[in-house]
Predict the 3D structure of the following.
Amino acid sequence: MENAENLRNDLMTAIAGSDGTDALEAVRVSALGKKGSITQLMKSLGAMDPDARKEAGQAINALKGEVAGAIDARKAELEGAELDTRLMAEKIDVTLPVRPQWDGRIHPISQVIEEMTAIFCEMGFTVAEGPDIEEDWYNFTALNIPPEHPARQEHDTFYLPGEKDGHRKVLRTHTSPVQIHTMQDKEPPIRIIVPGRTYRCDYDATHSPMFHQIEGLVIDESTHMGHLKGCVIDFCRAMFQVDDLPARFRPSYFPFTEPSAELDIGCTRAGGEFRIGHGDDWLEILGCGMVNPKVLENCDIDSTRYQGFAFGMGVERIAMLKYGIPDLRTFFESDLRWLRHYGFSALDVPGMAGGLNR
Ligand code: DAH
């Protein structure tokens, strides 16, 4: 079996010399594959006489076992080395300084929603969400805006195509329907804010057909108008970072609150420059009120036991005021130069402790 001895030496050299798992696999196929050299030797046994076959058979089997074992051992070695190389290449040095790139910026709407959320969550609110496509009942009727109510016209509603029974879904005109979903789903006490997209058929420098609102709702057994006032005034002072920001409540009307009010904050337009804070002028910032008992009853909440307040405001308007953005339409034009100018660094996450807009 000199033949077999030569073959053994050749194969062992090839196995030891293969520099990767692919090369090793090629050696394996050349020896043990269907047409491999050891397989061929096995086939040659058939032509031998019985004694010679027995001896040669044992030798070839031993060779086969030895080669297969050598291949397995080399394979484990190569796989280990390949893993080491990969781990070295994928290594991240976490001690390197962070270099914020200018390419990615946080949109002012996202930033302002984060800032508002940080303030309200500090006060104990949690964030709730609801669908953009609403049933008429949630957007209007349950909020005490019945079919013939003039508020329906004021909302410039986008209706979806009618369904067979004639009723039409709407793109929600405000975030207030999420009040209804929340009161249906949860037992009081409730303390939520709802940031989200809203839609009205309107387009000019201060209106866009898609815009954002943030809604607030508090329901429990003891909340009163004083809490409402404290909550929204504290919010404005934190948001605009003016500790003694003047605020006044004007009586107003919303079907879902009774009584209703609008909050104005102090500002000045002296010298042609607009500033929030002390001054001789007022600026309307949000609508609010005590939740109308009819709305509670529409959600099967006992209005003799529970009460609370609600408020709602436009996110774009607050972003424009806080960051001096003059035209609302630019928010949604996807102009990268605009985003580089008004956008925020992804690494400056707003928070009450670290600052809202570093
Ligand atoms: N939904 C109102 C709007 O879109 C804003 C609003 C006013 C919400 C008073 C409220 C509220 O929750 O109490 O104009």
Observations:
- The longest strand covers residues 257-268.
- Residues 50-89 form the longest helix (40 residues).
